[in-house]
Design brief:
36% of the residues lie in helices and 25% in strands. The protein has helices spanning 4-14, 48-56, 81-92, 100-105, 110-117, 142-153, 182-187, 200-209, 218-236, and strands at residues 27-30, 39-43, 61-64, 95-98, 121-127, 130-141, 159-161, 167-177, 192-197, 212-215, 241-244. The model has no long low-confidence stretch (mean pLDDT 95). It is an alpha/beta fold. Strands 5-6-8-9-10-7 form a six-stranded mixed sheet, sandwiched between helices. The chain has nine helices and eleven strands. The relative contact order is 0.16.
């Protein structure tokens, strides 16, 4: 059976850690590289629910898109939710690896997959390695594109900033929270910027720059990526049981 190190070495051929943003915390964040990895679970975020599933299902490696231990920790006790979560993983011997922005940025990663879902052509990075920008196969009304995004990402709703009747063609993409790349989208002459979430004042900035926005939620723009990652790992390691968390849910709801 493969070790944690063997699985991660193969994963990092697809998702090189040096593609991560400088501020990010990627790599093996908890656990022993020499331990066995016969059961592997992927998830978007380490939460009490995903941890309970990993422990109950006897996972030995948890590949979480969003990192744990993002900020320095001085105490690890059951007095905090983070401490209880991490101690549960440690007691169960579950290693935790996070690819985060490296997975967003890599060739074939989440941003490329979003571009593929929209059928974009002439796709290129939006900023050095980050995000993507490309062209729809045909000019499309913004409202129609919003429906395509909603269906393709299985999103509960898509916030739209801009005239739904406006025809758009050039699309910028950043999975997750991409507000800081709005200026890059405008400079790339994007008609519309697809990202998970943005601040209210970013809406106003987008309007001022003539860029429409499609916002299906942080979860919707990234969760499908960890599902596809589980499928990739399963194909690569047929003797290992790999699955995407079945208990994970979007914490936001539209009513």
């Amino acid at each position: 059976m493969p070790t944690v190190a063997a699985v991660l070495d193969a994963l990092e051929q697809f998702v090189p850690p040096d593609l991560a943003a400088e501020w990010d915390n990627v790599g093996l964040l908890l656990g022993d590289r020499a331990a066995e990895a016969r059961r592997v679970m992927t998830c978007l975020t380490v939460t009490p629910e995903s941890v309970a599933e990993a422990v109950e299902q006897r996972a030995q490696l948890l590949v979480s898109h969003h990192p744990i231990l993002f900020r320095a920790v001085k105490r690890l006790t059951t007095a905090t939710a983070e401490g209880r979560t991490l101690l549960s993983l440690i007691r169960a011997g579950v290693a935790v690896y996070s690819p985060h922005t490296a997975f967003d940025n890599t060739v074939g990663g989440i941003n490329d997959a979003l571009a593929a879902k929209l059928g974009l052509v002439d796709v290129a990075p939006l900023r050095i390695g980050e995000g993507r920008v490309g062209r729809l196969p045909r000019p499309t009304p913004l409202g129609e594109l919003a429906k395509t995004v909603k269906a393709g990402l299985n999103a509960a709703a898509v916030q739209v900033v801009g005239d739904v009747g406006r025809t758009v063609e050039r699309v910028a993409i950043v999975c997750g929270a991409g507000g800081e790349l709005l200026g890059d989208a405008a400079r790339a002459r994007a008609d519309v910027f697809l990202t998970g979430e943005m601040r209210f004042h970013d809406y106003l900035a987008a309007q001022a720059q003539g860029v429409a926005l499609l916002l299906p939620g942080h979860y919707a723009t990234e969760r499908f990526g960890v599902e596809e990652l589980a499928e990739r790992l399963q194909r690569q390691w047929p003797d290992v049981e790999v699955w995407a968390s079945r208990s994970e849910r979007d914490p936001a709801a539209w009513v």
